[in-house]
Design a protein that fits this description.
Number of domains of chain A: 2
Strand content of chain A: 5-15%
Low-confidence stretches of chain A: none
Oligomer: homodimer
Distance between the termini of chain A: 47 Å
Order of helices and strands of chain A: HEHHEEHHHH
Strand order of the largest sheet of chain A: 1-3-2
CATH architecture of the largest domain in chain A: Orthogonal Bundle
CATH topology of the largest domain in chain A: Arc Repressor Mutant, subunit A
CATH class of the largest domain in chain A: Mainly Alpha
Largest interface: A-B, 68 and 68 residues
Chain lengths: 180, 180
DNA sequence: ACTAACATGTAACCCGTTACATGATTAT
DNA sequence: ATAATCATGTAACGGGTTACATGTTAGT
């Protein structure tokens, strides 16, 4: 049920089309919950059927028409209730860590390569996070309540990313000391 | 395909039954890749059919018989090849962070409660990690190669956990300052 | 002419979760 | 008796990924 609530969360402040939602799920909310456009379109249909979203077609000039979805009152209520439900955390699955259990002299260089690639990917992501933080979340104490929550999620991403970079460095050092 | 390789990874050094694998997937390798016994039994069947695992029934006294699986040579080769495949990271999904996007004066106390619960869960987990580290990974430089990999995975878990605790504290402070 | 971005969908398959199902042995 | 641990499975469902499918407009 989480995707439904993630989509509704994305619609709290703005009405969006499936395409726009899919784009947003590549950034912002998508940092913590990703979804493909195929999933999103399916879920939007279900949510509209259930009465949690309404839809209207918007004519655009220079672009194809789009179908814009908005939260209905029942939708807002369902979302608010969901926040009070309890979530059990399921720790992240990471293939790279499983691969580490298979470390040997032959594959050490390849694994080091994968760690390096991940490190670079995380650097790019952190750069993005920091840009957003500087622009919109400079003084968290003064933010309106909801934005404080978004800020905390962003900080979680930043902290986790910085920690990951440190781990990569440690891993690369140890991996580098293994003789091929 | 990752579950198959996680199971084979668990069988590198010891032959195990489905039940024993399911138990192991609650700790050690399971820290980075979890699976239920239902999934494991299915996957074992498939892997045996494919010739990557062999199985033999073991009679036990005082306990029901068990079916013990071991890696075949083709299995070891498939596992070794898998390590060289490239994995793209898919960032963790976390419902709690999505909930933070819904923060308001009403639900702040509930969310703080969930953060506290997660914090305690992570404390317990870190205690376990640290115990394992102290017992088996005191001097990483001197470990045999494969164990160095396992050590790095463990360190990743520890680092990530410590970071998470710090984030929880920051989050709880900010959440506590919100007036109900 | 071609590519990128805009825009929306269906179908098949695989993976994971929940529920159901059974039965032995050991300890309290 | 009852609960806990050992031990192995099936079935239904739902979520997620990949592949397939179509069409417009704007820019090079």
């Amino acid at each position: 049920m989480a995707l439904a609530h993630a989509i509704m969360t994305a619609l709290i402040e703005d009405d969006l089309s499936g395409y726009e939602l899919a784009r947003d799920f590549e950034t912002s909310l998508g940092f913590f919950w990703q979804a493909s456009h195929q999933q999103i379109y399916q879920e939007l249909r279900k949510l509209a059927e259930r009465g949690w979203l309404n839809k209207r077609e918007v004519n655009q000039r220079g672009k194809p028409n789009k179908i814009v979805y908005g939260l209905t009152q029942p939708g807002r209520e369902a979302l608010a209730r969901w926040v009070y439900s309890s979530t059990r955390s399921r720790p992240a699955k990471d293939e790279l860590l499983v691969k580490l259990y298979n470390l040997d002299a032959d594959n050490a260089a390849h694994i080091a390569g994968e760690v390096t690639a991940r490190r670079e990917e995380m650097m790019r992501r952190l750069y993005l996070y920091e840009k957003i933080r500087r622009r919109h979340y400079g003084s968290p104490q003064t933010l309106p309540t909801r934005r404080k929550g978004v800020y905390l999620a962003l900080v979680a991403g930043i902290r986790q990313g910085e920690q990951f970079l440190a781990w990569c460095d440690e891993a690369l050092e140890l991996l580098g000391s293994i003789d091929a």
